[in-house]
Amino acid sequence: MATATTELMTAEEFFEWANRPENAQARLHVHRGRVFPAFPYFHERMAATSVLSDYVVRRGRGEVGWLAEAIVFDRDPLTVHMPDVMLFDSPSSRDDFPPRVTTEIPMLMVELCGPLWSSRALQRATVAIGYGVGMVWHLIPDDRELIVYVPRQSPKVFAAADELTGFDVLPDFRSKVADLFTLPGQPPAAPAA
Question: Hey, which bits of the chain come out as E strands?
Fold first, then answer.
C-alpha cells in the first residue's frame, strides 16, 4: 500500500512512482513535492459525479473529471492534487484516456474525506482556492456532511438534509446534499453511528 514519502519529487518522478505495481490501486496526492495517500470512497465519488454530470447536461456546458485526473498547481515545488471529482467550465484539451494531468483550473474540486482528515482537508482547500479553484467541496461520508469552501468566505457546513446551491461559482446549481452520498436508485443511507 502506498504511504507518504519524505523525499521531494518532480512531476516525472511522481508519475513513475505512482504507476509502480505496489501503488496501482492507491489514490495519491502531491503537496509541495511530497506524496500523501487519499481515501477511497468509491460509491460517494460516483454519486457526486452523477449529480455534477446531470448539472452539466442541464447547463449544456462543462466537463466532469473523476477517473485518475490530476491538476498541477505548481512545478517548483511540485504541487499536484488528484481530487476525487473536478468540474471544468468547458471541455478541454486534456488527453482522452486517464490518467490525465492538467494545469487548467476547475470551477469545482470535490474531495471525499475521512473523519480524521479535517486539518489536511482545510489546508488542501486553502491551497486550491489560492490557485484559483472557484469552490471546493469536502464530502465526509462517515458523517454525511459537506464542507464548502469559496474564496473570501468562511467554510460552510451542510448536513445531508440541507439543500446546496452553486454560490456564485456554479450558475443555477441546486442539489440535496444527501444526493452527493447516494447513487441514483439507491435508498439514502443513515449516518454512521
Answer: 28-31, 34-37, 63-65, 69-75, 78-81, 85-88, 100-102, 108-112, 135-140, 145-149, 156-159, 163-165, 174-176
